[in-house]
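Journal club side-thread
Mid-discussion, someone asked how the predicted structure for our own chain would compare to the paper's figures. Pasting it here so we can look after the session.
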Amino acid sequence: MSESEGATEGDEAVANGPRKRYKVLFIAPTSFFSDYGHPVRILEEALALQKRGHRVTIVTYYNGRDVAGLSIERTLPIPWRQHYEVGSSRHKIAFDALLSLKSLTVGLRWRPDVIHAHIHEGGLIGYFLGRLLRVPLVLDFQGSLTDEMIDHHFLKPGGLAHRFFRWLEEKIDHVPDAILTSSRYASDLLQHEFGCSPAKIYPLPDCVNAGTFRPGLLTSEERGALRMRWNIRPEARVVVYLGLLAEYQGTRLLVHAIQKLVRDQGRRDLHFLIMGYPGVEWYQAYAHQLGLSDYVTFTGRVPYEEAPQMLALGDVAVAPKVSATEGSGKVLNYMAMELPTVAFDTPVHREYLGELGIYVEQGRVDGLAGALAWILDRPAHGRELGAQLRERAQGLFSWDLAGQRIEEVYDLVCQAR
């Protein structure tokens, strides 16, 4: 069955109302809820499904914070690792063993209709549990497992461990009844590099809640108070970044671009508000070493519910992520906030921003600095771009539409069973 055929059947199902209200077991191998990309996707998918009348239970790691209105089942802690770092880690073996046990106990007790597993670890656990319970498995694919491990410097390309995990990744990619991909680029990756059938792949890009992320959130008094809190000069134009701080996120490249703007181009009218974690102290010290302390504020972790107000301080947004396989959901938040966005030219950024992005050759620091200077010097054009970006986000990247799409996929896999 082609993707378009699946969509047609799903559209008919939605037109007639949901044929069934599903009990859905989310397997989430992460510290849910945390204030960054992948947990945000899990959160918004669960809320969208509940809004459509489905029951969702999320099985996740011990760490993370609870969310009102969501049923969350947590693993036991491991005594030697009270805090889990973002990304690949050898300690994830223990975390995932406990997650397997918790998923089994919850699955046997609750008897879900569908297992919705996130990333490859969740897919592996979900495969065995799905066979035991005789229910379909839907994999939420966020990007290549081995490419992410390389990005996090957990694997060296071409080594024995890399070959093993590449083999395991391919095996996991072939076991689900359906795969939701966070981008069309990821869909192509599954087909062309891992040989997955296009009939069971359904692109489901990250989306944005445009009612929460919207322009005009702050009064002038609130804006002034918030700028003062974060030591932003009254006359400065603000560039915002929201996301994880890491090399594969382009954080060091962004700091070097700021250096070029301030030191080489003599721009004293700018301030960069860099929001996220981990490694805040390291990047802060690095910026200080380069003489940028007066022009950069590292806020650390920003709670998801506070992100719209913080982004409302921005005139321009920046997306320097260099990883080619992962999603980049932060860009959709920028779009909904009407922020013109400078981004490295990757397939995922192109998918979100379309022809409205301000693109820079991947990894080029001078290009990043030049593009930021160009759009900051054209505020009217920036406002026009921002308005068009919000319209695009509302039309193409709505979580309500995503919830409908996931429901269609559940209908198809359950009917096939």
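Post-session note: Residues 184 and 379 are 32 Å apart (CA to CA).
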